[in-house]
Amino acid sequence: MKLMFLGTAGYHPSNRRQTSCVFLPDLGIAFDAGTGFFRVRDYLRASTLDVYLTHAHLDHCVGLTFLYNVLVGGPAEAVVHGAADKLASIREHLFHPDLFPAMPPISWQPLDGPRQLPDGGQLRYWPQAHPGGSLGYRIDWPGGRSFALVTDTRAAADASYLEQVRGVDVLIHECNFRDEQADLAALTGHSCETAVAELARRAGVGKLVLTHVDPIADEATFPDLGRLRRIFPETVLAHDFFELDL
Description:
The chain is α/β, with parallel strands linked by helices. It contains eight helices and 14 strands. The strands form two sheets. Strands 6-5-4-3-2-1-14 form a seven-stranded mixed beta sheet. Strands 7-8-9-10-11-12-13 form a seven-stranded mixed beta sheet.
C-alpha cells in the first residue's frame, strides 16, 4: 500500500512545498487538506474519498475549498471527519458566503470513537496540546502493519501521546522548528527537531518521517538529518510527492 505526501510545509506553501496533506490513494483516505490537497484528484484510486482532519487551522483545511475540482471524475462527495467543534467552525467560517460562494459536496462526520476501515484496518485518534487543539491518528492493519500521524503539537521524550505511537512501523511527525527556536515553538504549539527524534527513539518506531517543516527554512541545514540520525537512525525528511510502501 502506498502512502503519499502531497503537502509537507507548515504555515504557508513555498516554491517547493504545499501545506499538509498525507494520502493513501488505494483507500481514498487523506489526512488533512492543506494547499497540497488539490493533488488528490490525480492519485485517487478508490471510489470514495474520506478526509481526516487533525484540526481547523487554515494550513490544514483550506484545501476543502478545492473539492469541486478534486472530485471531478471521482466520487460524488467527500466525507470529512474530525472533532465536532472543528467541523462546525469550518462550516461556519471557511464556507461563509462572504468567503466561499457555495458549499462543496461534503458529508460531515464528527469523530465518535475508533473507525473500522474497509480493508480491515482500525483507525484511532487522540487529543493533543496545540492552540485550539489538534488530533493525532494511528492505523493498525491485520498482520501488524501500522503508521501514526502527529502534527501541530509539541514533541518531547515523555510526550502525552508516546504510548499512542509506540511501535508503529512509520511515525509521521511534524518538525517545524530548530532547537534554538524553542520559544517560538512553545508560543505556536509546534515541535523542535531534537525532541522529535528522541520521541521516536523512546517509542520504538520503525521509521520516522519528518514533515510540516518551516517553509522559509534553509533545507541544506534544517532539519539537521545527520545529528537526528545519531539519535534515531531511521529518520527521513519528506518532500512533496514523497512515497512510502506500508
